[in-house]
């Protein structure tokens, strides 16, 4: 009898079902003729017809049939779960499902939704496998009740010490989900836009597909991932479970699911993604079971593990509900994880991935920004499609801002606005950027010093822009204590974002009033112009009129000519205006230390007449060989006086020195070219390949002078390479952090041609001094000797300097940090080498009468 449906149950169903009874009859297996007969026997009385149909169906069931299962299934198939729930509540019916059915439905959902993540920030349909592409994040947990006043910041009222909570690093998802480590079963995970919070929760859900999987510590029987931004009508998590996780035709009901959760409360993990994205009126709703607000306040599911994510501006609001939340911040990737992420996403072309990694290492502000996963994602997508990042930094930052803004509407699901009102959206975005940029500029040009952190009150004239900026990710709000004061402070995700917004505002001022623009420009002088590099470059990229005024300002400025000329070339590149090249001072010496420097030099050389008697110092890596080749072939280099190329071997196996040979092969033989090859700790190199390339470059007269630098390599690697280079005229040898104790004599293979010998921190002590003296016989042409970071006695220094009297060309000696008093060293050097004058502590140099090439 327990399996049968009672007459009162049938009466309740007949009162609720209405015109859908025919559909239910069909799902219960009644034939069309049977349904028609019921209608004919009792025309016009719907409830009676329903009762007749249900009674007929019940009579047709065998005694072994579970009528409850059949009827509840049919009702849910026609979308009447509400009747099933009422039936359960009135009759005590348990329903046709088990706890294992709930688990399986969740797993089935996660197999569809939690095994992939977006491969594109604004194209959700483009997905990749999470197991292959998830990279661990940098997770920092605050230690409660342990504060230190160590963060000194500059605010409008002056410098202030902020109370900063001490932290520990969480090394894995295991630790994040382990109450013994985080010390609570309620965790607040916060971080700026695109720092990987949502992806991390998807990875947790994916791990739960196997309930005993290690990342979940085998603790949880239910793992429920709820995207709060999708809760537009109700704050009831039970509703969200049915809307987001369970199948549309599920046999489960809300009462059943609630019962299962209540029974397994301590073995349930609830993942609430994006509490900052749920509409406020929904969050404050008073209706529903397991309301989000009640969960945050620990009024329900008090024994469940709850992980909530948010952007920083909502942290205080969540803690106001329950201050016992363990606070964990995700700062995105560490450098190693960022590099892994890039390489994973460029699997078909290892060289391309490696080139982007190396490019970021030579571009400080992009290197910092790329630790934010969404920024790193944008970079590799551009790099993958264009095989480079835009030459103009402004283009890249404009795209970043646009993607962050569009992503906000993607999250809101407002596809209609995106497709029909793009120009309006961009206008709104620029208005927000201009409002935020006003404060950003005030911070950069503050008379008391640059400010990167702002009091919330500084945005009182643009509160709506601040609120939207927080939601989009343009800025973030955090609360700090400062003594007895509580301060709500605003920061930009990165200084370069602040500089871009400030430049957008400054260009807007130029459009309105050129004198206002000039006023701000005049505040940039010799003392702060280099600190304002990004601001000026962004202005040049936003407006050619601004670029012309800025280049005039740089040309008239006093200061380090090389630095100012480098800034002018970067600003010219950013402007994209070849006509402005004439505003630059023609240089006599050029230093290129980064990819940007090379690109700006290449652009400049395309639009000027040849530079006469100019020295070029170029540091570069494999990915910049194409740029170097264009520079060497340009007409502007025809009259160069000297070109020094410092080449860093990459970490990837390959014949890259052959490419360097090919590149240097385009140089006119009349040009004076030198080459210094750097082999760093992680550089890949083959002794035969390196030695053969060096010999060929000299034999083919591609270069006039060759140098070699090795850093943190084994002594055997050093000795093997120097033996292979014995027939090569090596003029510069620099060895850093290599243990040459008792091995110094092995470098004698190439010392006859050396003009520069630098042995930094090579564990040299007194007993190697004889070897050093022996490889530098009297009359040797050595010009520079550096022994920094080793350990010598004063007697050893005296013996060395006495011997160096026999080296007529010696003009530079460095003995820094060798364990001796600097004054004692000076006295010995002055006595034995009086032609060398002290320039810095431990450094001595022959005064220059005329400039020399070296």
TrEMBL record:
Pfam (any one): NACHT
Domain NACHT positions: 185-312
Domain Death intervals: 6-91
Keyword match ATP-binding: yes
Record-linked InterPro entries: DEATH-like_dom_sf, Death_dom, LRR_dom_sf, NACHT_NTPase, P-loop_NTPase
Keyword annotations of the record: ATP-binding, Nucleotide-binding
Keyword DNA-binding set for record: no
GO MF annotations in UniProt: ATP binding
Record-level GO BP terms: signal transduction
Source superkingdom: Eukaryota
Name this polypeptide is given: Uncharacterized protein
Organism phylogeny: Eukaryota, Metazoa, Echinodermata, Eleutherozoa, Asterozoa
